Structure formats: structure tokens, C-alpha cells
Amino acid sequence: MPSELEVGQIVEGTVSGIAPFGAFIVLPTGKTGLVHISEVADAYVKDIKDYLKENDKVKVKVLSMDPNGKIALSIRQAQPKPAHRESSRESGGHRDRERRAAPQVTFEDKMQRFMKDSEDRLQDLRRNTESKRGGRGASH
């Protein structure tokens, strides 16, 4: 039984509990860590119970450990990278390089796009209602 965990280490643990936000994993050291729902799989996880159940054995990567004893884990990052990338590289597939170079769409990007779309819609709505009232110079 390993005595100490290290950040970056990959170990096998057992699912001891499932919550809407993640899964609790008992590690070989006896300590319990949390796999946040965003670290369960590469795909979007709506319900963690679709991926895990109690007493499942899972490989996890230790992401961080804070002084209070909280241990952040990832199942997603403990998985080996897909082998099909190597085969497409060997066949001269430059499409793989392009896919990797494409920027990741972050939450901030999505929020910024939403705010811009929302503002555009509001402007259209204001323009539309002003024209029905007789425009900006109309007396009320």
C-alpha cells in the first residue's frame, strides 16, 4: 500500500459515493478524493450515474492536494491518449495537426458570444418598438 500520493500520479481507486457534482474515490492510501463531474469523461457528462456506480474500480490521476486534505482527481486525464492519432500521423494525415491546432472553445468564449447575440437581439427589439411608436423624436 503506497504511503504517500503525489500530484500527477495515476492510481486505482474504488468509487465510494456519487453526488450530482462528482464521485468520491477511495484511494490505495485509504484517503478519499473527488473526481469532479467535468473530469469523468471527455464527452459532456449530464448524469454521472451513466458513467460510474458505487464500488467500480477506476484509474484516476491526482490533480491536486490541498492542506485541508482535499484531493482532486481525474478519470479523464488518467486514460491513455487514443492510438488512432498515431496511425493518422503515419499516413501523412495533416488533418490531425489542424484539429489539435484549433482553439478550444472555453466557457468564456461561449459566454462572450451569448452576450453579443443577446445585445444584438435587444438592439433589434428596441429599433422595432421605436419605429412602431414613431421613432425617437415622437412626443408621448
From TrEMBL:
<keyword id="KW-0689">Ribosomal protein</keyword>
<dbReference type="InterPro" id="IPR050437">
    <property type="entry name" value="Ribos_protein_bS1-like"/>
</dbReference>
<feature type="region of interest" description="Disordered">
    <location>
        <begin position="74"/>
        <end position="140"/>
    </location>
</feature>
<dbReference type="InterPro" id="IPR003029">
    <property type="entry name" value="S1_domain"/>
</dbReference>
<dbReference type="Pfam" id="PF00575">
    <property type="entry name" value="S1"/>
</dbReference>
<feature type="domain" description="S1 motif">
    <location>
        <begin position="8"/>
        <end position="76"/>
    </location>
</feature>
<feature type="compositionally biased region" description="Basic and acidic residues">
    <location>
        <begin position="83"/>
        <end position="133"/>
    </location>
</feature>
<protein>
    <submittedName>
        <fullName>RNA-binding protein S1</fullName>
    </submittedName>
</protein>
<dbReference type="InterPro" id="IPR012340">
    <property type="entry name" value="NA-bd_OB-fold"/>
</dbReference>
<keyword id="KW-0687">Ribonucleoprotein</keyword>
<comment type="similarity">
    <text>Belongs to the bacterial ribosomal protein bS1 family.</text>
</comment>
